[in-house]
Each structure stands twice: as structure tokens, then as C-alpha cells.
Amino acid sequence: MASKLTIALIGSLALNAALVGIVVGRWLTPRPEQPTVQMQLERYGPTSDVVAAAWEQLPKADQDELGRQLREFWVANGDERRRLSEAGKTVYDAALAEPFDEARLRDAVAIFQMREKKLQSTAEDILISHLGQMPPLARATAATGLLTPFNARMQRADRHAQRPVGAPAEPAPAAAPGN
């Protein structure tokens, strides 16, 4: 009859063999190098650099016109952007208020969403009106970029708009197509 030590050694040997098999299997299994753009789109949506590259395929004259239209939109909607910011602060304040009033918070969120939707729709109308001038794959990538949450695009545009005095002029809304 085998001793307990012999059984333990055989068990340990079997376990080690299984672990070595797993490690060697991992080494021998081919892995994809880098995810393709299509894989990234399917999993995460397009990254801002991919979307920006797609918008760069817009003909130069259309790029200039798009930039002009977005700058005009940005300036013309300064008051609406301020109201959207205030609506966001109202949501925050309603959530902090004691005693908590659920109806007040729901109303504040609804007002914020309404203001956001108004700005988003107008900006997207401008962007979409230029998509027809792009090659199909670039058009599809740029259109998918429009799915990025509007508030993220607006925050990026706000950061560009608040550049220091004397800094090179960059059109603030130019970030909107990419993000």
C-alpha cells in the first residue's frame, strides 16, 4: 500500500503538470497584436483621434465652412450654454438639499436635459449637414463620434474657449466633431 507521502507527491506532481500546461498553453496561443479600428468601434466607440482623423477627410472648403458655422453657433448660444451650466448647478444643489426633495431633483434634471437636447440638436444638425462631403468610412466614423455624450463634447469645447490671452486662436467648437 502506498504511503501518504507517496500519494501527496503524486498529487503535487499532477497539479504542477497541469499548471505547466496552462502556462505553456498561454505562451503558445497567438494573441492579436493591437485591436483594429473596427474592433475599437465595436467595443468602445471611436476614440477622439480616430474621429478627428475622419473629420480631416472633409474637403478643405467644407472644413472652413464647418468651422465658421460652429464658431457662429458657439457665439450665438453663449446665453444658452450659460443657462445649461446653471441648470447643471441646480441639479447638484437639488441633490445636496436637506431635506431631500425627489420631485425638485427630477424637475431640475428634466430642465437640464431639455436645455442640453436643444444645444445638442442644433450642433448635430450643423455637423450632419457636412457628412455628405466625406468618404463613406470617414462619414460612418464621424457619425459614430456624434454618439459621444454631448456634455463631454461641450466641456472639451469650453476648455478650448477659455484659453489664456495671447494663446494661439483655436476655434473652440472644433473639438465638437471629434468628441
Structural summary, described in words:
This protein is an all-alpha fold. The chain has one domain (33-178). It contains 9 helices and no strands. Helix 5 packs antiparallel against helix 6 (102-131). The radius of gyration is 27 Å and the shape is flat.
The total number of structural domains is 1
Following the backbone from N to C, one meets helices and strands in this order, namely HHHHHHHHH
Radius of gyration: 27 Å
> Biggest sheet, in brief?
none
Beta-strand content bin? under 5%
Total strands:
0
- Overall average residue pLDDT: 77
What distance separates the N and C termini?
72 Å
Structural class comes to: mainly alpha
Q: Which overall shape is indicated by the principal axes computed on the Cα atoms?
A: flat
Return residue spans where pLDDT drops below 50 for at least 5 consecutive residues: 153-157, 163-179
DSSP summary: helix tally? 9
Helix content: over 70%
Task: Please name the defining characteristics of this protein.
mainly alpha, 179 residues, 9 helices, 74% helix
Topology:
Layout: H1 4-28, H2 37-44, H3 48-55, H4 60-76, H5 78-96, H6 102-131, H7 136-145, H8 150-161, H9 175-178
Write a compact overview of the structure shown:
This protein has nine helices and no strands. It has helices at 4-28, 37-44, 48-55, 60-76, 78-96, 102-131, 136-145, 150-161, 175-178.
